[in-house]
Amino acid sequence: MTKALHIVGGGMAGSEAAWAAANMGVPVVLHEMRPKVATFAHRTSDFAEMVCSNSFRSDDDERNAVGLLHWEMRTAGGLVMRTAQKHRLPAGGALAVDRDPFAAEVTAHLKAHPLISTSYEEVTELPSDGNWIIATGPLTSSALAESIRSATGAEALAFFDAIAPIVYAESIDMNVVWRQSRYDKGETEEEQKAYLNCPMTKEQYEAFIDALLAAEKTEFHEGETAGYFDGCLPVEVMAERGRETLRFGPMKPVGLTNAHQPDVKPYAVVQLRRDNALGTLYNIVGFQTKMKYGAQTAVFKTIPGLENASFARLGGIHRNTFINSPTLLDSQMRLKSRPHIRFAGQITGVEGYVESAAMGLLAGRMAASEILGQPIAPPPPETAMGALVTHITGGAEAKTFQPMNVNFGLFPPIDAKGGRRGRKDRYKAYTDRAKEAFTEWLS
After folding, report:
1. How far apart are CA 208 and CA 243, in angstroms?
2. Where does FAD bind (predicted)?
3. Tally of CA atoms within 13 A in the half-sphere of 307 that contains its CB
4. Tell me: the pLDDT tens digits for 261-311?
5. Does residue 10 have a known ligand-binding role?
6. Is 11 annotated as a binding residue?
7. Residue 291 is labelled as binding a ligand
8. Are strands 116-119 and 132-134 parallel, antiparallel or unpaired?
């Protein structure tokens, strides 16, 4: 009888790993501590619950590294991308989903698979034998985190991640706010009007920055440091880096025309993205925060169109844990000191839902192949998955290792003979090369 693969953590990585391994004929036991042991951020006991944003980011597989990763996961038969497509919401060029039915369907598929069983007991120690994947994500329980530190002889690294608030659509003033995706992106009218836009004058923007800087913030515990991941900075931390930072970041006014005042160019714009299929909830894009709840309500209600906003969820902040993968993992994502254990997902130092799920898919295929006696090599570094796994298992500088999103800077350079290529042409060359290499690797 084929040996079982044990996977700890039912998030994006664990769910994808379980699906990949089971579909290769390997029995899987998926361990998830929720709902018996809760976390700060989760609301349900479903697998693949989307905690922060409801977006898988760009779906452009020709000129975007994230979109390319979407393509590779779909091509490899991944569960996350297939389910995301079914529960897709209008979001311009991004892949956003109705998060609750998305997680419910992923859970249903995993529980219905004849080779997948589930255990809802907390795993508190690294196992001494068997075949395991640790995919507990950034909210790894303190007991298991301590076991990892003890086994590796290395301190687990940590950074702080913040959650953006969600607003009830009915409380948004549509006499001020208008619907438009930046640069009218999207193939349908619904996609081209996927975002709500709140315009600000220069005076309103300056007052908003003042309020952000003065707002009461969450304090860190003794010994903690604010090692934020740059791709998910709290909005007030961005403001602290310069008064114009937000206006060139999530509040940039480019590619937008105020439908109520077409001749007046906004100085800054706050965007909201639909968070559910009913269109009753919107999240404030890029507005993750560590402000205290009272301060959030006061500050965010100064945004034009949100003066009477009612919040379904306010923002929050939590500590995320990840390991120094370049030091600890081999090219098969195995713990060098205990090769029967693999790590996958955000705990390895990849950042984002898509990257986490992709590393879960890869770990599941690698583990299943090894159990079946047919080990496989990692994907070529020219592919998105290959570039990520190469980065976390040796390509990154261990001394300065920080969470990383997939990006073309992780790929081997494209030969640009014949003169300097335009950016769009170069990105298309990256994706064309990657698709060919990934297809060959899969076969």
Report:
1. 10
2. 9-14
3. 10
4. 999 999 999 999 988 878 888 999 999 998 999 999 999 999 999 999 999
5. yes
6. yes
7. no
8. unpaired
Q: CA 411, 413, 418, 421 torsion: positive or negative? A: positive
Across 38-57, average pLDDT: 82
Residue whose structure tokens are 């295929």: 365
Instruction: Give the Cα separation of 72 and 69 in Å (integer).
Output: 5
- The neighbour count for residue 221, using CB atoms within 10 Å, is 6
Structural tokens at position 115: 């080779």
Q: Spell out the domains of the chain, with CATH numbers in brackets.
A: 5-156+323-442 (3.50.50.60), 162-319 (2.40.30.260)
Exposed, middle or buried, 202 (CB in 10 Å: 0-12/13-18/19+)?
Answer: exposed
The two three-digit tokens of residue 347, written as one number: 């705990």
Which residue in 11, 9, 1, 55 sits closest to 357, CA to CA?
11
In this structure, are residues 286 and 250 in contact, taking their beta carbons and an 8 Å threshold? Answer: yes
What is the rounded CA–CA span in Å between residue 71 and residue 74? Answer: 5
Section 396-424 average pLDDT: 76
Please enumerate in sequence order all residues whose Cβ is within 8 A of that of 399, keeping only pairs 6 or more positions apart, or say none: none
Q: Per-residue confidence at 419, pLDDT binned at 50, 70, 90?
A: very low
Cα–Cα distance between 408 and 397 in angstroms, integer? 17
Structure tokens at 200: 């600000």
**Is the pTM of the predicted complex or chain greater than 0.85?**
no
Query: In the structure encoding, which two tokens stand for residue 328, read together?
Result: 């600890």
Q: Other C-beta atoms within 10 Å of 7: how many?
A: 33
| Cα distances (Å, whole numbers) of residue 61 to 1, 64, 187 | 40, 6, 15
Alpha-carbon span 65 to 119, nearest angstrom: 35
User: Is 360 labeled as ligand-binding?
Assistant: no
422 is in an annotated binding site: no
**CB of 136 closer than 8 Å to CB of 144:** yes
* Residue 255 counted as an annotated binding residue: no
Render 303-364 in DSSP notation, one character per residue: STT-TT--EEE--EEEEEEE--HHHHB-TTSEETTEEEEEE-SGGGTB-SHHHHHHHHHHHH
CB within 8 Å of 420: residues ≥ 6 apart: none
Beta strand 132-134 pairing with 338-343? parallel
